Sequence to fold (425 residues):
Amino acid sequence: MLDSKQLRTETEAVARNLARRGFALDLDAFRALEERRKAVQIEADRLRAERNANAKAVGMAKGKGEDASAMLARGEQLTGELTAAEVALAAVQTESDAWLMGLPNLLHDSVPEGRDETANVEVRRHGTPRVFDFTPQDHVDLGVKLGGLDFEAAARISGARFVVLRGGIARLHRALAQFMLDLHTGEHGYQEIYAPYLVSPEALVGTGNLPKFAQDLFAVQGERPFYLIPTAEVPVTNLVREQIIAPESLPMRYVAHTPCFRSEAGAAGKDTRGLIRQHQFDKVELVHIVKPEDSYAALETLTSHAETVLQRLGLPYRVLALCAGDIGFGSAKTYDLEVWLPGQGQYREISSCSNCEAFQARRMQARWRNPATGKPEPLHTLNGSGVAVGRAMVAVLENYQNADGSVTVPDALRPYMGGLEVLRG
RNA sequence: GGAGAGAUGGCCGAGUGGUCGAAGGCGCACCCCUGCUAAGGGUGUAAGGGUCAAAAGCCCUUCGAGGGUUCGAAUCCCUCUCUCUCCGCCA
Fold:
């Protein structure tokens, strides 16, 4: 959610910024709505003030034993008028809120121009793709032959875009998550979080997934309106919902390993092969809660923490600064990490690190007490994958494959694999 | 699942229809006194929104949430959520 004051006072600048995303802010509609809101709200406040004063006068008159019948009649009339005014206010408020909730975040000045992913800017590269003296297989062929990836069984159980992992591959998957958690808690100073996988609509509104992106989510049938989390970002960022954080508690750094559930509506036919795009996948998520002045330094730090995972695993990757048109709804600036996949002969997204500034904090009323003003002010929230577990496993399988179809276990994972050095069928 | 008790400001806690945004305490901030390892006194201290170029001021809202009764609700009624205790069940 944008700062409504900023929206009102710097409307033109906000519109210019949103236009970089390709989002057209309808200035006339906004101003008309504002006029209406202002008039209705002022009138409702006025009526309420008068009713309160009248009611108070009744109390005082009765206390003195005076006749209050005229004031009682006036009160009745005021209540009637107020009820009507409040109905009108609620209507315009709903309209105004819905409109505000539909606006994406403002972009940081450093975000490159461009309307789609082809305009993303490569910031740096790390590692060199391995040169194979045989034709590398993709992770599906490798995993199926190793007996560890079973898409057919998953299809019988659940349908398309699910997988069953078995044996050494299942353990490799677990090893990756464990390795990442230990790295972030042990070396990067994160607190490990275990959080709910089912969340309320309010939590999703807080992170910006609702109301606009309901089609991306799985809603759970039942008495209560639960959704499956699309990422641990949702429960973890909501840890600071409706809180006022003391400055000495900042920054907060959280890491959580959770499954993520995505409907992938609109992705029909895209990445249908293998583990790249599943309805359920595991991810180790990093969340920073910081003072506003620190958030861009925190974005660099958070990104570097995700990069460390790939470095320790010996996986070649590149870092992209997403362009204006490709950046997510709630983010002011995003870096994507793309890992090299020999089986596909290309770099594929494995992490996305975003600074949401105060966008989510405003939605969830997450504040800190700024000593400079003594007032509660919105925090800045950041999140990033550190990293996607399924895709990391794809990268390990493809990058560490051998000519005979076996897969060498990266050094960093061996302690988590009982010392195993090579995965064989 | 059954029975009971509760939900008030950063924290604890009083408050059963009117001048209550809410006593008192703790914590915190500032000031004074005193001065030697400790205290005493005073003042202030909720959040959200509106109006305003902005500040001040003024106004509105908020005592778990939503509805209702009333001229007027923290206080009365209804529904829901959450917490705690006991019983049952369960990993």
The radius of gyration of chain A is 27 Å.
